[in-house]
Amino acid sequence: MAGLDERWRAGLTALVAVAIPMAAGIAAGVNGNGDGPLLQGGVVVGACAATLLATRRGLWWLVPAQPMIVVPSTVGGVLLAEPRGTNHTKLGTDSVTALHHAFIITLVALGAVLVVALAKAVFGRGGDRQPGLAGSEPAPDGARPVGAHRG
Questions:
Q1: Does the CA dihedral 19-22-26-27 come out positive or negative?
Q2: Which of 71, 74, 125, 131 has the highest CB neighbour count under 10 A?
Q3: Where do the record's region annotations for Disordered lie (predicted)?
C-alpha cells in the first residue's frame, strides 16, 4: 500500500474492519440466518483484511475493537432475521443467543487477527530492514548497526 498517506491508510483500515462485518450481518439477516456462516465468514474476512491493511503502529486497536464490531453485527443480523410481529420474549431470547454466538465469533476473529499480525511480522521483514521500535523502517544510508558505539 505504498503511496497512501498514513491517515488515509488508517481510515481505510477502520472502514474495512467495520464495513465488511456489518455488511455480512445485514446480508445474513436478510437471508434469514442472522448469525450463520455468512456472518461468521464476513467477520473473519473483515478482521484479516483490516490486519493486512494496518500499519505496525495501527495494529494495536484491531484486537480490542473486535468485540465492538462483532456484537452489533451479530445482534443486528439476528434482529433482521426475525419475522415481523415476533413477540418480545422470543426476541429477547434470540438476542441472548446471538450474544453467545457473538462471543464465539469474536474469539475466532481475535485468533485470525493475531495469526495474520504474527505472519505479517515474521514474513514482512526484508533483508534491508533495521530493527527498531516499529521494526519496518529501512536502514538509512551510512547508518551504524544497532548497538554500535561511536569512536
A1: positive
A2: 74
A3: 128-151
Distance CA 30, CA 14 (A): 24
Average pLDDT over all residues of the chain: 80
Give which of 47, 48, 62, 54 is closest to 10, Cα–Cα. 54
| Three-state secondary structure of 57-74 | CCHHHHHHHHHHHHHHHH
The pTM assigned to this predicted structure is: 0.73
Rg over alpha carbons for the chain, rounded to the nearest Å, is 20
pLDDT of the residue at 99? 86
Longest dimension (CA), the chain: 81
Question: In the chain, what are the domain boundaries?
Answer: 6-121
Distance CA 61, CA 47 (A): 11
